[in-house]
Amino acid sequence: MGGSYKRKRSGIVIPKSSIVLNLKPVFAARNIVHPYAYLLKIGINTTTANKMLKGEAIQLNFNQMTLLCVNLNCTPNDLLALRAMSLPSHHELNKIKPLENNEESVMTVNEWLSHKSVDEVHDILKKDLS
After folding, report:
1. Are 50 and 36 in contact, with CB atoms under 8 Å apart?
2. Which residue among 15, 80, 96, 130 is least packed, with the fewest CB closer than 10 Å?
């Protein structure tokens, strides 16, 4: 298997899993402009928050799903999207919204931080974590 994709346990290749965590539309609907700080604030650790925002999360435990659903006032279906999966038209997974092409390129934490000064990041974290 070529390319720059990372291989994880159980043979799942990032970012090739078909059911994916898609937080971008939920954050947009809730006017959350600093998703990384928000995830930290609700109790998601830094590594997991980074993977979630990069689209590299291949596991989501029930505690994390509960934190997201309770704090974002949504259901698990709102957090998931279906990427390029061939299914019969009557399959129940077709009820999950498809991942739009432009949603695959989620801004990484590094990209987001590259446009901010140290003072801006400090102010954002101070505000969002208080």
Report:
1. yes
2. 130
pLDDT (0 to 100) of residue 122: 74
Q: Indicate the pLDDT class of residue 105, thresholds 50, 70 and 90.
A: very low
Q: Which residues contact 42 (CB under 8 A, 6 or more apart)?
A: 67, 68, 71
For 32, the token pair is 């959350």
Using alpha carbons only, what angle is made at residue 46 by residues 102 and 35, rounded to the nearest 5 degrees? 40
Q: Could you give the angle at which helices 35-42 and 62-72 cross, rounded to 10 degrees? A: 110
CA–CA dist 82, 79 (Å, integer): 11
> pLDDT of 39-88, one tens digit each?
999 999 999 999 999 888 888 999 999 999 999 999 998 999 887 777 78
In this structure, are residues 35 and 44 in contact, taking their beta carbons and an 8 Å threshold? no
Helix residue ranges, H only, the chain: 24-29, 35-42, 46-54, 62-72, 76-79, 109-113, 118-129
Return the residue matching tokens 């609907």: 29
Q: pTM for this one?
A: 0.63
